[in-house]
Amino acid sequence: MINIPKRLQNPILRFSAFFTKFRQTAAQKLFRLERRLQGGNRYAAQIYFLFWSGGLLLLWLWDVLFLHAPERHLLEKAFVHSLFIATLVVLFSFAMAWATAYSIEFFTDRQKTIAAGAILFTLNLIRSLPQIVGVLLGYVWITYEIQTGQITSNIAIMLRMSVFLALFIFPEVVALLRERIAYFRQSDFFNAMRVSGISEWRIINYDILWKNSRLHILNKMIAVFSAAIFLQCSVDFIVSVGLSTRISAINLPVTLGSLLANIDSKQDILAIGYALTHPDYLPNLFFRHLQGISVALVIVFTLFSLYKITNALAERFHL
Amino acid sequence: MMRYQIHIRSFDRTLVAIDDFQLDAGEITVLLGESGIGKTLIAQAIFGLLDAHEFDISINGKPYRTYLHSGFVRRLQRNGFFVFQEPSTHLNPLMTLQEQLNEGPLAKAANRQEEILRILWQQPYETHIRPLLKVYPKPFRPSGGEKQRILLAMAFKKLALTAGSANRLFVFDEPTGSLDNAYRNIFLRELLRQYAQNPFTILLITHDYSMISQIEKRHSALLPKIHFKELRRFKGPKAQVFNFKANEYTTWLKKQRAAAKGKHAANTQTVLTVEPEFKVFGKTFFLKQGAATGKPVPLVLHRQELIYLKAPSGMGKTTLAKIIAGLQRPQYIRFKLAGFSFSETTDQNVWRKHIWGKKLAMVFQHADEALNLQARVRDIFKGLPNVKFRNDRQISDVLQEVFEWDLPQAFLQQKVAYLSGGQKQRLNLLRALVLHPDLIILDEPLNGLDFASIGKVLDIIRRKMAAGSGILLISHNEEIFERLVSEENCYYLTDKAT
Amino acid sequence: MKKINREHLGSAIFVSLFLFVLFCLTRPPASSGNLPSPAVQMLNRIQPDINDPFQVQLFKDMAAAFAGADSNRFLTYWQQMQQYRQNQQQRIVSRQKATYRVSLGRLFTMYLNFIWIYLLVIALTYYGVQTLGTYLFLRYKQHQPSHAVRIISAARRILLKPTVKNWNVFFALCLSALIKTGLYFVLFAPAYVIAYSIKSDFDTDSTLFMILLGIISNGVLITYANKFFHLLLTESRKGYVRTAVVKNLNHNFTPGSRKGISWRALFALRKNFNGHVLQHIFMNARFQYVATFKEQAAFIITGLIIIEMALNIHGHLSYELLQQLLYRNYDLAILIIWGIFLLVKATEWATDGILYRIKKRLGYQ
To answer: How many CB atoms lie within 10 A of CB C98?
Structure first.
């Protein structure tokens, strides 16, 4: 039995009571959080979006503390460029898809089968070429334009990259829009409105696509954004890595893919494998090999988070 | 007596709240009520078919998971059966009908199959039924009626298997929705015969009020065992079961008379003339007056007139309506509508420019499909030609035509998806009526309505007719419409020339 | 089927003709073998710098030795020398390009190798997608709380009762969450990230590694397994499933249990869940999945091309494509693209053919 002096007994008791109360309050709060999370996946998409943003913010803060400023600025630039290109891809692919889908419906309704057939034929051709090959050929064209001085600014280059990426991604969006329109055409929905004199323009654009399909479209746009990031990083990596020393590099704007292909980043990635076989080396990954690790983490974490967001939306709204 | 207090909630609203739902064990409950009120949900909840994770359900104050794990529900499911409405979606499109009829425990009643199918089809088994069993269910083959009969056959097989067992609950949810009256009567006869031999609990959900007269006429001996009940909403989502007196319907029916022709009847301007013969999907069809026998005659509809087009289920009444409305291209037809002549080669632009929303309006049978469920009530009239509402007051005035009660402002803001089946059907009707067209085609206008709403809709039809429109009506509610429409205005669609 | 054949054949012929024309246009011309006159060859050895007056005078003196007093010939010699130098440089570049040109036979061998790898990856992905998708569906049907909820629950139990057992449970859950996250990151990581991570410890140029990467990386497996899971989920909500339930078919979805779905049934090559409601759901989901197979095939080809290019796997088709593009041997690049296009087209054709046969059996055609 420990003899606690009287003058200390009260503080100890007070602290003990405080600690018990703290534990109980914390347990109650956790219980409420648990019930809220258990209540369903209503806010899962928002939570994953916050998870993504929060994760990137944390990574940036870590880099502010432990990554050299020039490397960090390069990483920030690459991230902004990649995001900018991906956003443009989303806008371009939606615009192209909407125009294509509506044209097909318009020509089919008016029995102009040749016009509709020509558009479908072109779409099938684009779909038959693997996206990576198509985008690569697009980069060959961009390279030619840069070499001949037709385009010089980074914005113009990024715009062209977005167009080529969108060209090989938009057929998926067309498929979604056509599927939604076909779904409503199958039922009495389309005919009931047509017969009431409502224009097909309004039925397709407002009643079907806006009122009944905007969640599907939003979900697809997030998937397109993800595909754009993936393709863009892959092509930039390939173009950067595949260059021989005898041929000079074209100065494309720095993106996550090209930064990953950078020799320093590759060394950093190699360190991951080393850390797997030499676990004591693991802490070094977070301090010494930050550039490559950060780039790889941003790419993989973004793709993972976007997948979770689209999944959550699909489950929540039964898409 | 099985008594239930049932509450079913989705994540954002209450779907069903009923404090006292009773099923007389070993007796027959016929549950009536408008569509969308919760009859199917209640039946599925009792039978243990709802997903406890998708809805927040309590039965008799206990969580649904507890109810599902009870021995009572397991026995109900083991010894009972549930025939679902919408037979098209309740058959697996990748298995033949034969495979589905003999799956699981039903295989043990394979020896009863032929007898049951012969009763339901009333046709020779080898030539008419056996070939059908090899078919994979598709949208158009077998027909809706045939699919419905396959589901009923499954129920009768289960009945044969469980003869003598306790806790037998058989639920029939709109079992006659796709059946002609003839086949409906055959089903009723067989069901009640099986019941008379070996009583079990039956819950029969239907909108078909004419079943009441059939039961009264042919099965009056069983009337003490049959309880007619109607489910009605009385406080928001709360519903209550009321006893429905069969004579309430039969008395009302007897009072119905053919609609009098309007005061301008002498001014018999022809709205629609259809030649007696037309061809679609490779088959030729004929229009006859009054009955399926006789010579084919042209269908002629005047203003302020109502023509009732009858035919067996799946014959092509809706197809003809779609052809007239320019939504289906036939192989051959000739007809005149509001001064325009049409044939199979007429370009759809003619309808687009001159007919749709101007001379013709069509009310489709399924309000859930015909209306934009994601739109608000006030948005239903947007985009209609020649219909412009300046403010909500004007919309309310128009809605009053079909709703007849003071509409709160909130009603206009309500999403169409959250209206009851009857409200949706009335809104569906109203969208056609505000156009004031020369011709209104009504395809199953009483679909999904409760008894009170049926009367209101019939009044609206009469008013519209008197106001000058010609109405072409398609409905399987022959019992009601044969009273309202004179014989000379009844046409028959058939595939036989003589 | 005739319509399908017409469409695919039409587009194959159209594209093949177009690429053939491009191929002919981009073939390199035969280099001229004509050598200039001995005088020009000799003068070229000086390689005079026109900014150096001494070298210019030297050139003039030498040119005079050949041309005599005719100063006009000095200019001619100069021009011929310039032309000769240009031709030499072009020959150097052509020889460089020629070094990076492969024979058609070698290209064909690479193409066959690519097809063989592609077919293997397709087959394994087809199996993996359905198995993983079905497993995800069965897990979903158990309605277990998520890892986050279980960790929070374990943390709460520690706060209320900090026993060793509760701490063990908490740490075990955190560890499994970490492993799951790690697995997800591997499945989502682009192939080159995984390959470069372990390049120093494993032979990342091997065909086996390439096949493994092709299946698990680039998000192929997880994306399509997820799609298949959603197809199963959608089908499970349809009416015919309820009919199967009321027919008293087994509807216990516990994986690995005798009363539910056995592991054997789940991992079987030809999945069969007879007597279970899952059989209805699975067969319909698989039918929908076959219809979307074209998209998956294109994605897999994209993945394989990325792997070969990004990892610089010598002797493989896609790496060769990149090299030919970089060295501007566009004719060979077009030939490779044509081969890839035909492979995608063949997959689309085969998928449409299979779908046609299924629909014919069901009576839709």
So the answer is: 13
Residue B382 located in a structural domain: yes
pLDDT for the residue B450 = 83
Domain boundaries, chain A: 43-317
Same domain, B163 and B307: no
Q: Nearest CB to B103: which of C238, C249, C364?
A: C249
- Whether B78 and B131 map to the same domain: the answer is yes
Task: Choose the final residue of a domain: B200, B221, B255.
Answer: B255
Model ipTM over 0.90: no
Indicate whether B279 and B230 sit together in one domain: no
Query: Among candidates B124, B117, B179, which has minimal Cα distance to B150?
Result: B117
**With 0-12 CB in 10 A as exposed, 13-18 as middle and 19+ as buried, what is C51?**
exposed
C→B contacts (Cβ < 8 Å), by residue, are 143, 238-240, 242-249, 275, 280, 283-284, 287, 361-364
- How many whole angstroms from its chain centre is CA B20? 27
Do B101 and B177 have their domain in common? Answer: yes
Strand runs labelled E in chain C: none
In a domain, B261, yes or no: no
Highest mean pLDDT out of A280-284, B241-245, B354-358, C317-321:
B354-358
pTM > 0.90? no
The residue that leads in pLDDT, A158 or A245, is: A158
Nearest to C230 among A243, A303, A314 (CB): A314
3-state secondary structure of B171: strand
Residue B262 falls within a domain, yes or no? Answer: no
Dmax (CA) for chain B in angstroms is 70
Structure token digits, residue C296:
């998956």
Indicate the class that CATH gives domain A43-317.
mainly alpha
Amino acid identity, position A25: T
* Stretch C238-245: mean pLDDT: 94
The answer on B345 and B240 residing in a single domain is: no
- Please tell me the distance in Å from C196's CA to the nearest CA on chain A: 6
Q: What is the pLDDT of residue C97?
A: 56
Q: In whole angstroms, what separates CA A120 from the centre of its chain?
A: 28
Q: In this structure, what CATH number is given to the domain that contains residue B49? A: 3.40.50.300
Is A195 in Cβ contact with B357 (below 8 Å)?
yes
> Same structural domain for residues B75 and B111?
yes
Distance separating alpha carbons of residues B495 and B490, to the nearest angstrom: 17
Q: C261-296 pLDDT, tens per residue?
A: 999 999 999 999 999 999 999 999 999 998 888 888
CB C40 within 8 A of CB C34: no
Q: Do B185 and B284 reside in the same domain of the chain?
A: no
Alpha helices in B96-207 (DSSP H): 97-101, 110-121, 130-133, 144-161, 181-197
* Residue B120 falls inside a structural domain: yes
For chain B, what is the domain count?
2
Domain extent, residue B249, equals 2-255
Task: Count CB-CB contacts under 10 A for residue A251.
Answer: 10
Band the pLDDT of B262: cuts 50, 70, 90.
very low
pLDDT value of position B155: 95
* Structure-block tokens of residue A118: 């020509």
